[in-house]
């Protein structure tokens, strides 16, 4: 059985499936009090809505009960800064941010701490961030991009003139106030500019926005910030940058598959059985196991050559290949990176660990989804097939890949339909029956000879699914 029943808890030993043993030392975060009091000044602040959250902190809207002034307050639990280097990181952020005074930098007000949390009071930007605007609209006009970009550059120039690197420029850190004025914010990774010889070689920041010299451990400089600024400025205004030149999108894969299957079905004669199948079909990769952990991380799958990949909720993709010795990483803009597993950059270690946990779960709990009987696997590729999108319907799971392949797994009887491309770009259709027996046919043979009602019924259903997602 190739699918996971429901959402499995990857970290739990059976009989306690709801415990996350990988994080067993982490205590539940206490609920933040409705009213927070500064122990030194005695001023009270009432908690408002949650504005955002990250790995170490949450940001709330808070109101000073005496003056009614509103703030964006970054709340860091004391438990997250218990180690000296963690405490030093927060202290450096506060000391650096409090020195900044510029119309395009989020204003620092004050900070204090109590036994539970550290509170950093910042200017409230009521329009949230450009990430929120982008999510709602999916694009900005060229005049809007120019308007915001001028303000970002003004703020960034100010930082660089003061010898400060931001190191995490992205849409989510460009905040907009009620007057539609932009502010640079979140200085958690900011650092003082150093000479070329002294530059930090640490890889930090948000993966999609990292400059090549940062990934190559050549150090951070002002040019790294400029690279990171270039990514969102293109991202918010140009579709080609997110799709990638010559890159198949999920809609394009669905559209192409829908067309060839519709054409096949339209000319297919009525038949009571399937035609003779290929005795030795050209080997191809397909999904033999999968697990849905999208409520927390993403969708994991194992290919027939034992490669394991995860399409993460934020759109990045990481695969473990070549018997786990090689890591392929793909950003949302379709930029690919290949690393040796033992020299993977630190920011990707957590995602690799998640892939390994899903792989372990699939290995221990799931059967192979069928046996295609290939005498050998396809030759290894410099860029393995990557999952572009997965869709769960009432009756089936649909998976679309960047090599144009489509796989549909039916829940009720565990049958599977796989549409793949041969080396000559012709289509091959593979059907895995409820008995887990596979048969492969060139699509033109089915078009000319017909097939059983069992397979025809499934092909019609697949076309209906693809029709919906091709036009989505």
UniProtKB/TrEMBL annotation:
One of its GO terms (biological process) is mitotic spindle organization. Residues 286-364, 386-471 form the POLO box domain. Pfam families: Pkinase, POLO_box. SUPFAM superfamilies: Polo-box domain, Protein kinase-like (PK-like). It comes from the Eukaryota. It catalyses: L-seryl-[protein] + ATP = O-phospho-L-seryl-[protein] + ADP + H(+); L-threonyl-[protein] + ATP = O-phospho-L-threonyl-[protein] + ADP + H(+). Residues 1-25 are annotated as: Disordered. Gene3D superfamilies: Phosphorylase Kinase, domain 1, POLO box domain, Transferase(Phosphotransferase) domain 1. Belongs to the protein kinase superfamily. Ser/Thr protein kinase family. CDC5/Polo subfamily. This is Serine/threonine-protein kinase PLK.
């Amino acid at each position: 059985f190739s699918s996971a029943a429901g959402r499995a808890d990857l970290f739990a030993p059976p009989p306690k499936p709801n415990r996350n043993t990988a994080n067993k030392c982490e205590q539940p975060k206490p609920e933040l009090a409705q009213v927070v009091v500064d122990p030194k000044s005695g001023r009270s602040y009432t908690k408002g809505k949650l504005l955002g959250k990250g790995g170490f902190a949450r940001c709330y809207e808070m109101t000073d009960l005496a003056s009614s002034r509103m703030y964006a307050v970054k709340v860091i639990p004391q438990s997250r800064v218990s180690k000296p280097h963690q405490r030093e990181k927060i202290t450096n952020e506060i000391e650096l941010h409090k020195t900044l005074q510029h119309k395009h930098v989020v204003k620092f007000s004050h900070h204090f701490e109590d036994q539970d949390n550290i509170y950093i009071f910042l200017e409230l930007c009521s329009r949230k961030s450009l990430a929120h605007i982008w999510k709602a609209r999916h694009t900005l006009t060229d005049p809007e991009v120019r308007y915001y970009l001028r303000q970002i550059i003004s703020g960034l120039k100010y930082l660089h003139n003061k010898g400060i690197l931001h190191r995490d420029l992205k849409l989510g850190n460009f905040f907009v106030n009620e007057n539609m004025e932009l502010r640079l914010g979140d200085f958690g990774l900011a650092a003082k500019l150093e000479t070329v010889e002294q530059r930090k070689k640490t890889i930090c920041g948000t993966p999609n926005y990292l400059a090549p010299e940062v990934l190559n451990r050549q150090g951070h400089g002002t040019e790294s910030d400029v690279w990171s600024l270039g990514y969102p400025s293109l991202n918010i205004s140009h579709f080609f940058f997110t799709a990638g030149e010559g890159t198949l999108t999920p809609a394009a894969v669905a559209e192409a598959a829908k067309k060839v299957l519709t054409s096949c079905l339209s000319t297919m004669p009525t038949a009571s059985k399937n035609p003779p199948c290929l005795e030795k079909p050209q080997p191809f990769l397909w999904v033999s196991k999968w697990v849905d952990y999208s409520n927390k991380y993403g969708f994991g799958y194992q290919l027939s050559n034992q490669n394991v990949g995860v399409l993460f909720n934020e759109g990045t993709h990481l695969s473990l290949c070549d018997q786990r010795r090689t890591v392929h990483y793909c950003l949302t803009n379709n930029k690919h990176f290949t690393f040796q597993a033992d020299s993977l950059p630190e920011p990707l270690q957590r995602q690799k660990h998640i892939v390994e946990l899903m792989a372990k779960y699939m290995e221990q709990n799931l059967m192979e989804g069928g046996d295609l009987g290939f005498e050998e696997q396809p030759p290894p590729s410099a860029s393995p097939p990557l999952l572009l999108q997965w869709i769960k319907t009432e009756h089936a799971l649909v998976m679309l890949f960047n090599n144009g392949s489509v796989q549909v797994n039916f829940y009720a009887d565990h049958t599977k339909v796989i549409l793949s491309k041969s080396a000559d770009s012709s289509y091959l259709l593979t059907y895995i029956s409820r008995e887990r027996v596979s048969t492969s046919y060139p699509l033109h043979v089915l078009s000319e000879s017909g097939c059983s009602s069992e397979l025809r019924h499934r092909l019609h259903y697949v076309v209906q699914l693809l029709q919906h997602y091709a036009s989505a």
